[in-house]
């Protein structure tokens, strides 16, 4: 797992336990550089961050699966939003998944364009501390009906489909 953030580690461990209930899952959070800004803006940079983390893990560690998540934000034709790309790889394939979009208020996206990280902006606006290792912006903006972890878990669950049904994804 290309992060030491407990939210990301828990999401990865959850999906591997669900897909492999008979196996003992060891999910270790490791530092893996993203090679992009701390707050990626745009889909290309956000995806590159997740791909770079997985490439680093594959080059420096041995595991059955490698997993990384990169949260980003972008301004789309319909408005600003935050989202994440996930990458899961093994020794033969690498699969990209993407989370849902969370609409962002313009004032929050403007702060991101000024170089701030989403977690820091949310902490300031909502008077929280280190929200990115808890429910995240998603939790705050949905009154905790969704969380950062639930978003990652869904994206990772979907990204596992090609590993589970390899015969269909040849």
From TrEMBL:
Entry keywords, A to Z: Hydrolase, Magnesium, Manganese, Metal-binding, Nucleotide metabolism, Nucleotide-binding
The Non-canonical purine NTP phosphatase/PRRC1 domain, residue ranges: 2-164
Cross-referenced Gene3D superfamilies: 3.90.950.10
InterPro entries assigned to the protein according to its UniProt record, in alphabetical order: ITPase-like_fam (IPR029001), Non_canon_purine_NTPase (IPR002786), NTPase/PRRC1 (IPR026533), YjjX_NTPase (IPR050299)
Swiss-Prot/TrEMBL catalytic activity: XTP + H2O = XDP + phosphate + H(+); ITP + H2O = IDP + phosphate + H(+)
Keyword RNA-binding: no
Taxonomic superkingdom: Bacteria
Names of the cofactor(s): Mn(2+); Mg(2+)
Similarity remark: Belongs to the YjjX NTPase family.
This protein's name: inosine/xanthosine triphosphatase
């Amino acid at each position: 797992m290309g992060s030491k953030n407990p939210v990301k580690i828990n999401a990865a461990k959850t999906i591997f336990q669900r897909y492999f209930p008979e196996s003992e899952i060891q999910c270790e959070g490791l530092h893996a550089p993203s090679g992009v800004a701390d707050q990626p803006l745009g889909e290309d940079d956000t995806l590159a961050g997740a791909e770079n983390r997985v490439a680093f893990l594959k080059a420096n560690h041995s595991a059955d699966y490698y997993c990384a998540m990169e949260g980003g934000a972008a301004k789309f034709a319909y408005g600003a939003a935050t989202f994440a790309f996930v990458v899961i790889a093994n020794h033969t394939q690498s699969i990209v998944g993407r989370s849902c979009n969370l609409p962002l208020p313009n004032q929050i996206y403007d702060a991101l364009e000024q170089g701030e990280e989403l977690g820091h902006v949310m902490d300031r606006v909502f008077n929280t501390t280190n929200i990115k290792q808890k429910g995240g912006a998603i939790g705050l903006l949905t009154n905790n009906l969704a969380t950062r972890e639930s978003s990652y878990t869904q994206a990772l669950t979907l990204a596992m489909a090609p590993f589970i049904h390899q015969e269909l994804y040849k």
